[in-house]
Model the fold of this input.
Amino acid sequence: MAEALELVKRQFGRDAVILNTRTLTRGGLLGIGERPYVEITAARRISDLPAPLRRDTIRVGLDRRVCAEGAATPVSAPLQPAATPSSEEVLSELGSLRSLVNDLVRETRRSQAGNLPDALYETYRKLVERAVADEIARWLVEGLRRELTAEQLRDAKVVRAHLARAMESMLPTSGPVRPVRTSGPTVIALIGPTGVGKTTTIAKLAANLCLREHRKVGLVTIDTYRIAAVEQLKTYAQIIDVPLEVVVSPAELEDAITRMQDREMILIDTAGRSQRDCEKIKELKEFFDVVRPDEVHLVLSGACSEGVLQEAIQRFRAVGIDRVLFTKLDETVGFGVMLGCLKKAEAQLSYVTTGQDVPEDIQVGEGKALAQLILGRERQGGEHD
Ligand SMILES: Nc1nc2c(ncn2[C@@H]2O[C@H](COP(=O)(O)OP(=O)(O)OP(=O)(O)O)[C@@H](O)[C@H]2O)c(=O)[nH]1
Ligand SMILES: [Mg+2]
Done:
């Protein structure tokens, strides 16, 4: 085999691509007088692959006879010396491979999308590319098909406007947090997976409520798993100048809320729970069974994949989700995931955060703006990227 491979390299040049090797026998009767030989299927260069006539099969027998199959000329005939491909050639090969893969992906999606006309299929494809869940993308294009005339479907501006309206209806928003009780503090808790930005968002909310809206705010943390977590919120509380209570049990939470009766709003920070850790999620529920917050906001990072987000929603549902708050939109690639998440959570969107800066990087969720974000920049003629 080594000898045969060497022969291939020598005859086909050092860019030869080995496609297959096998050891066979030829001649003889019932195993007597058989002559073993090695068959190697190879191409001279990767660029030769789509052209079957330029792909040769070399057979090296024990008698070192070399013959060719499928080639226009036997291999024993003088072979073209293989040229070393230039970097442009390599880049062009990579380009054709990429477009081949893209074509395959497109074809697979095309067949999954059913019998959509080409224009609608393009819209569907773009939606899926922007991380809109397949089922929602289909629903959106079916809506276009149902509600727009053939002429309207050809007008990219009309299509975009229709999609934006449909998406907006799927992005229910709650507006900013505000006191909802006539007496006593309104209690708002932020829950969610680890590291999504709960504490930073609490600081942003507290700073805006205190410094911009001049509300009396109190902070409570039940995140006592890490000293650093308490310290992090303590630092923010000192800077914003609001009281902070650290509690370790549901009873302590109840006491803390009672002590803060002079506050208009109390924001509760919680420890991040992995969506896989059902025990810790249950613990959280025990706190909220004793003191049911007026609003529980599930904090989700927009930078996570649809699957991870859907799993988090599923698990945190046990605690009760009143609002969804998306963080890290500045790191998000596919804004379309927000549609599927709000649908699954059956909750309104409260805020989105767009960076690490406290208190600036937070905005009240706004369906119209988010629909445009999902659709991407508008190109001339109303198309989206
Ligand atoms: N890029 C970006 N980073 C953010 C945003 N919000 C928070 N972060 C960063 O995310 C990291 C984690 O933030 P935390 O607020 O500590 O997250 P957490 O959810 O409280 O984390 P745990 O308490 O450990 O579960 C920090 O580095 C924040 O600065 C955002 O909107 N965009
Ligand atoms: Mg935290």
Q: What stands out?
A: The chain has a mean pLDDT of 83.
